[in-house]
Here is the input.
Amino acid sequence: MERRAAIGVVGGSGLYRFLDDVETVEVDTPYGAPSDRVALAELAGHRVAFLARHGSRHTLPPHRINYRANLWALGELGVERVLAPCAVGSLRAEHAPGEVVVCDQLVDRTAGRADTYFDGPEVAHLSAADPYCAELRPLAAAAARAAGLTVHEGGTVVVINGPRFSTRAESAHYTAAGWNVINMTQYPEVVLARELGMCYVNLSLVTDYDCGLEGSPHVRPVTQGEVFAVFSQNTERLRSALRSLISTLPATRSCDCAAGRPQPLAHT
Here is the structure.
């Protein structure tokens, strides 16, 4: 089997396998080991690579994931587009558990994560105004709808460090800011993909209402078990959405993601 793939899927909590008849490969990177071996297979006429974000046995908490190694490994295999399902909490009453938000914006509230490939002596600055791929977002939304999911196109995800969930005060602050959903892994994954010139799109599956959502009947604190239960209930529809999305991807990219890859400053 060819050790190449143009499409990468990064599986989040509860999605540890995606492809059939796979070849698994180890990829060495300058940043250490990725979360797991990468699975390669054919799907809908495309070569696809799958990597479990937390490892295939969910052994890596959000703040310990080697995001740089993960994205670099996919890039080494030739990946140009990254499809990134993930679990999120809702900060809006209208975003109910079991629904999907295809975000177009991000707010970083993490700390201490290695979040760039340009640590020096090469220096470059990513233009991150629009971190998610404009070409992939509507395709992802259509694929999720075709899989029977209720979809919200557009929205802002606030990314916290984890592994703990928010306090009520923190959650209320994020809600008051007007953000839509909350997550622990979208940053720095999306910006690292963009530094490598990759397209990146999320399918954020809402698993719970966050604890600071005033006026909602679902304000009791979320538990880990509830998050995984909702994700498990929707895993097959999420898989179906990903398969549909892959089948509808155009052969070549017409977005600006590759052109937006930052170029190192010249040394004088």
In short: The radius of gyration is 18 Å. The first strand starts at residue 7 and ends at 11.
